[in-house]
């Protein structure tokens, strides 16, 4: 059967307050342990931020070590409205002229005009793929296996719209539509690709018993070729006023190794279309990579400076003030940035306009960097030169290797964070022990004070009884 206990009622003592205060004394170490845990957790978060910033610096250094960065080129055209150019990385610097002689075209065909919107006679519409000789001349069917004509069965009652739909449903190399020219309708056919090889010829096999013969589509009294509104044509250019090159499209790939030329659909042709194409190193890519490296270093350096600083005026210390790991990272990086490199006329970053500021951050002197960009090989070696000596390797290579060493699965970041987490786990166990001890002491105090309370209650009752008896005896004495 459950009992109700209210310590202190019998004796008048504030047992709950006494036990609570004594228990709190036992829990006082928790304040220190909780503060230590908060500090360790803050340090873990801070090292996580440093790890992220080191990773950013490693990525920026990796960009400076990449052949893609130093091999980046830009292709420019003196007449981009006529010819544009692009080049893949590491394409040799070059310049040449391009004259557009003719543009590539798809073939277009327009049927004879059919008055009204009535049905066309039954039969078969044949579209033979092939090419027309120049200027153009005779038609030659495509070679095997692409010489099978596209055949469309036309039934009695089909309109030009029906015929166009049947052609498009084949999803072949020819697309169709219908044009209303005011006097009637025309079936328009166009090859999906450009170039001489994308030509075609239209013939019909009509059903002689069907009215409104299908042959009306190709009968205008001038012959089938007259219905071709645009003959298929290759694009053709002349390079350096001497060498003619053709392409089935308006794009020329690897005419010059690594370079792609694209002719505008509105490009002029002939000598007046001459464009100068220039291939040169892309200095903007290199400059951007250097700027990103400087920015990444400055973010890391500023964070480390703030985390490890001590302000004598306020006597406030950063969270990592005096931490050998954080200070070591900062000092090592600063030393690498001031170190020398072999294999280049530029020995130090300051030689190319990347100079240190008070506090350790970097800034870029654009004028000196632009001068250094005029010597791209030496500038590249300053950052990514591999001398087989860690002390004289390129600056970017040094920092990339150092940062990657810190970030490896068994690197110093992992070691430091594991140590902090072990400390946090130990702190948690100590807090648990303090709480358990306080709980045990609280229970023991409650038992002791409950027993004391009961004893005092008994003594109080006895005292009251004795006092009552004495009073009664006194009263009896006075009455007698």
Task: Describe what you observe in this structure.
With 480 residues, the protein is of the alpha+beta class. It folds into three domains: 33-69 and 284-414; 73-104 and 235-281, no CATH class; 108-230, no CATH class. Helix content is 42%, strand content 21%. The protein has nine helices and 20 strands. Strand 12 and strand 13 (243-247) form a beta hairpin.
Entry summary:
The protein is an alpha+beta fold and 480 residues long.
| Overall average residue pLDDT | 85
How many individual domains? Answer: 3
Count of distinct strands: 20
> How much helix, percentage-wise, in residues?
40-55%
Largest sheet: 5 strands, antiparallel
H/E topology pattern: HHEEEEEEEHEEEEEEEEEHEEHEEHHHH
Euclidean distance between termini CA atoms: 52 Å
Return Rg in Å. 46 Å
Q: Count of helical segments?
A: 9
- In percent terms, what proportion of residues is strand? 15-25%
Structural class: alpha+beta
* Coarse morphology: elongated
- Biggest sheet strand order reads 1-16-3-12-13
Catalogue the unreliable spans. 1-5
Provide the fold topology.
Layout: H1 15-64, H2 67-71, E1 73-77, E2 83-87, E3 94-102, E4 108-110, E5 123-132, E6 139-141, E7 150-154, H3 160-169, E8 174-180, E9 185-191, E10 199-206, E11 228-230, E12 235-239, E13 243-247, E14 251-253, E15 259-263, E16 275-281, H4 283-308, E17 310-311, E18 316-317, H5 324-338, E19 354-356, E20 362-364, H6 366-373, H7 376-384, H8 395-407, H9 412-479
Antiparallel strand pairs: 1-16, 2-15, 3-12, 3-16, 4-9, 4-11, 5-6, 5-7, 5-10, 8-9, 12-13, 14-15, 17-18, 19-20
Helix pairs in contact: 1-4, 1-8, 1-9
């Amino acid at each position: 059967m459950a009992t109700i206990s209210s310590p202190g009622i019998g004796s008048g003592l504030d047992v709950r307050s006494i036990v609570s205060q004594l228990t709190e004394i036992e829990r006082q170490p928790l304040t220190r342990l909780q503060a230590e845990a908060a500090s360790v957790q803050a340090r873990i978060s801070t090292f996580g931020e440093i790890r992220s910033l080191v990773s950013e610096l490693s990525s920026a250094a990796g960009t400076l070590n990449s052949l893609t960065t130093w091999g980046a080129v830009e292709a420019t055209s003196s007449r981009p409205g006529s010819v544009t150019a692009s080049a893949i990385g590491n394409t040799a610097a070059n310049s040449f002229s391009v004259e557009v002689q003719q543009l590539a075209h798809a073939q277009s065909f327009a049927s004879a005009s059919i008055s009204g919107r009535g049905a066309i006679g039954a039969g078969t519409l044949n579209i033979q793929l092939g090419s027309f000789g120049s200027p153009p001349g005779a038609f030659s069917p495509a070679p095997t296996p692409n010489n099978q004509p596209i055949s469309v069965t036309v039934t009695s009652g089909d309109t030009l719209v029906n015929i166009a739909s049947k052609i498009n449903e084949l999803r072949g190399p020819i697309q169709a539509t219908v044009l209303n020219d005011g006097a009637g309708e025309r079936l328009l056919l166009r090859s999906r690709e450009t170039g001489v090889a994308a030509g075609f010829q239209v013939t019909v096999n009509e059903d002689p018993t069907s009215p409104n013969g299908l042959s009306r589509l190709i009968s205008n009294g001038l012959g089938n070729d007259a219905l071709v509104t645009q003959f298929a044509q290759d694009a053709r250019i002349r390079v350096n006023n001497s060498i003619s090159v053709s392409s089935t499209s308006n794009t020329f790939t690897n005419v010059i190794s690594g370079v792609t030329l694209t002719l505008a659909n509105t490009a002029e042709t002939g000598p007046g279309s001459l464009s100068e194409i220039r291939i040169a190193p892309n200095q903007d890519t290199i400059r951007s990579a250097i700027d990103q490296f400087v920015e990444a270093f400055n973010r890391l350096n500023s964070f480390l400076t703030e985390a490890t600083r001590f302000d004598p005026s306020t006597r406030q210390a950063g969270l990592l003030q005096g931490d050998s790991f954080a200070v070591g990272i900062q000092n090592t990086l600063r030393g690498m940035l001031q170190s020398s490199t072999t294999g280049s006329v530029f020995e130090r970053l300051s030689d190319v306009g990347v100079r240190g500021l008070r506090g350790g951050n970097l800034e870029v002197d654009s004028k000196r960097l632009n001068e250094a960009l005029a010597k791209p090989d030496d500038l590249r070696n300053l950052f990514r030169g591999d001398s087989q000596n860690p002390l004289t390797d390129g600056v970017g290579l040094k920092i990339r290797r150092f940062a990657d060493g810190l970030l490896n699965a068994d690197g110093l970041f992992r070691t430091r964070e594991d140590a902090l987490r072990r400390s946090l786990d130990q702190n948690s166990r100590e807090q648990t022990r303090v709480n358990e001890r306080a709980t045990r002491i609280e229970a023991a105090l409650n038992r002791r004070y409950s027993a004391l309370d009961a004893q005092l209650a008994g003594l109080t009752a006895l005292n009251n009884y004795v006092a009552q008896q004495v009073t009664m005896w006194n009263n009896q004495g006075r009455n007698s």
